[in-house]
Amino acid sequence: MKAVVFYEHGLLDKVQVTDVPKPEIEPDEILLEVKAAALNRLDLWVLAGWPGLNLKLPHIMGSDGAGIIAQVGSNVTDFSVGDRVAVNPTLGNDSDYFGRRGLDNMSDNFAILGEHVDGFFAEFTAVPARNLLKMPENSLFIEAAAASLVFVTAWHSLITRGGLQAGETVLIVGAGGGVNTASIQIAKLAGAECIYVVGSSDEKLAKAEALGADVLINRHEENWGKAIFKATNRRGVDIVVDNVGAATFATSLRALKKGGRLLTVGNSSGPTFEFDNRLMFGKHLSIIGSTMGSSADYETVMNLIFNGRLQPVIDTIYPLSEGLAALHRLEEGNVSGKLVLTP
After folding, report:
1. Left (φ > 0), alpha (ψ -120 to 50) or beta: where does 308 sit?
2. Residue partners of 116: CB distance under 8 A and separation at least 6
3. Architecture of domain 2-135+313-342
4. Collapsed DSSP state (helix, strand, coil) of residue 64
5. Which listed site, 73, 96, 336, 341, has its alpha carbon 20 to 30 Å from 174?
6. Does residue 178 come out as left (phi exceeding 0), alpha (psi in the -120 to 50 range) or beta?
7. Which SUPFAM superfamilies match (predicted)?
């Protein structure tokens, strides 16, 4: 079968579209005929590698996918050949305290499809049946694939961990990323009173406005920390979504009102930084981190996708054979929405 793989860590010159054997499934798995797979910056980080990441090579890339069940394992009873399914990318099992409670993202055995094991950039992939969610007949594979990782991550951060309530104010640092565009929509759906978005271009900010952002701040044209201070009448906001990290964290903390919380699921500009701890105790602030989401989070947010209340933003659809070109586009960063591969 065709797949996008790498045989050693490095840059994109290590990636190739080639033939690899079709996977064999375990009793608790299904064989998925992949109908759509979506790219994430995680794909580039996995390609680069890091200490402690030990992959079976060649590694099939891609953490987001959806498709049709082509084969079921001997222990699988809830799904059948031909079922249309989305796939929760968070792997876990029932062998520890968190896994038995559906908190796969906190499990000692936590892993992500496409990060720690083979992923979706292939014609077929093996997936645990416990990760499947049946799709309605009218739902689209490209939307299910584009939504999975970023929407479950944003939902878990904003709603489950962050406790966003109707009437609160939200600042989202970054207008174009998948988690941020999901966060705008989720905040609007949850009844946020005002959604502030800081972005790097008027084009990205216009798209953020179309998704539900209320106040737009171009960080190249004004000091966004001062702009938030002014726009909130010197009060600050209830919640800041900051997945940038080192470059923005200090300003994000200052943008919070008393009792506010800063939510983070990543650090694209770097993981290490200093902050003034007097802000933390003086303003009663909280920093709340999370990774991915629980199985319940996944089912909740994907059903909102299926019924049209949330909508993934898709930039471009590529054939699987052009997977390397899509990865180059992702690396360049000139993307507003998800890049998706189809057979």
Report:
1. left
2. 53, 55, 91
3. Alpha-Beta Complex (3.90)
4. strand
5. 341
6. alpha
7. GroES-like, NAD(P)-binding Rossmann-fold domains
